[in-house]
Amino acid sequence: MNGGHGRNSYANNSSLQRNVIDRSKTMIDEAIANHLDIQICPPSSSNTFRIADFGCSVGPNTFIAMENIIEAIDLKYRKSGSTPEFHVYFSDHTSNDFNTLFAYLPPGKAYFAAGVPGSFHTRLFPKGTLHVAHSSTSLHWLSRVPKEVLDTNSPAYNKGRILYTNAAHQVFEAYSAQFGKDIQAFLHARAEEIVCGGLMVLNVPAIRDQTPPSEFQTETFSIFWDLVSWTWPRR
Amino acid sequence: MNGGHGRNSYANNSSLQRNVIDRSKTMIDEAIANHLDIQICPPSSSNTFRIADFGCSVGPNTFIAMENIIEAIDLKYRKSGSTPEFHVYFSDHTSNDFNTLFAYLPPGKAYFAAGVPGSFHTRLFPKGTLHVAHSSTSLHWLSRVPKEVLDTNSPAYNKGRILYTNAAHQVFEAYSAQFGKDIQAFLHARAEEIVCGGLMVLNVPAIRDQTPPSEFQTETFSIFWDLVSWTWPRR
């Protein structure tokens, strides 16, 4: 993503992603209220509750998402008579503009902040570190272009295009297979990093089964606005 | 500090600081061997050992310092038949060039890395987070210029200079008082953040008592090379 705060920066061109976060707030509130069991998911022995945002970019969306989650968790803990300290990890590729992210951390924030550089398709935290893992409008980014898409001798060759709308079915299959590998890598890594009883919140743009390639782009954004999201408690 | 990797960058102008780290290795090895009690200082319930470098700048010195510490701890744990995962936090002012720091993280590093922006004169971590806190050639940086040093009506006015060598005794007293406040703030913050039984390693340039102001600069570097360092176990 473009760093900084200029005209073409992510920070000034991410209202769609902000909208997803705003619309997912109720869903996250409910997931935390109903699925995060503070009896089986206590904060660490030092009373710290750890949250990570995977694919945070440079803000301000990530700050809003993290504050929404903290607010819901804080409410739940207050009802039980105690509140933990929050440690929030902002994670994105090493090339992400962390300098800008850190410069715009909200003053008076109610958490301790850290930046974590690296691909979310790999392990980024020690085992059993996180209580909540969050990712919004990020998981559709692949770790690489499928090699057959670039191979002029392959039926999946995409003629130099970066979209697969109206492309041959083999192009769709190549991208789909790559996403399969990537999401598996993401889930394997998070399965190690999230504590037992922790929660994972994912907002992912998606298409319905059987959607023809000619409608991929329209369909993607339609479903995107329908907000296909999942919240998974880890048991 | 100057970021990046240019001619005037910290990365290319910090051989003195590197020398301090190299010369403190034996002292740190001994401190970990003799003072870090892995019976009273076990890693967290998730088997994570957390280390922070306060005033890390942009590397490569901080990477060498952290690897030295990990090597000594790993050796100690191996003797006991188990090894933890290491989580290393690189901390410096928000204006530090974390982008460069992250870009030069050693490939194949044996730890998970995070950057922590903020002043080490404040709390930067939740309570009971860290097993080892390290700071090398950083604690002499003050949080502010003492205001009387800038006051033309004060006997501590330093005439616009940024050094106090050969200055009036009141100038020395003003800087000394500011350092007193700053080191107290640093120690109070770390006292909350370090686990019981954890270790703090500080390399700080210093002067001997009774050194006249005219010899401050020479003396500072003399003692610097003598490596006045402390290692404190927290009981």
UniProtKB/TrEMBL annotation, chains A, B:
<dbReference type="InterPro" id="IPR029063">
    <property type="entry name" value="SAM-dependent_MTases_sf"/>
</dbReference>
<dbReference type="InterPro" id="IPR005299">
    <property type="entry name" value="MeTrfase_7"/>
</dbReference>
<protein>
    <recommendedName>
        <fullName>S-adenosylmethionine-dependent methyltransferase</fullName>
    </recommendedName>
</protein>
<dbReference type="Pfam" id="PF03492">
    <property type="entry name" value="Methyltransf_7"/>
</dbReference>
<dbReference type="GO" id="GO:0008168">
    <property type="term" value="F:methyltransferase activity"/>
</dbReference>
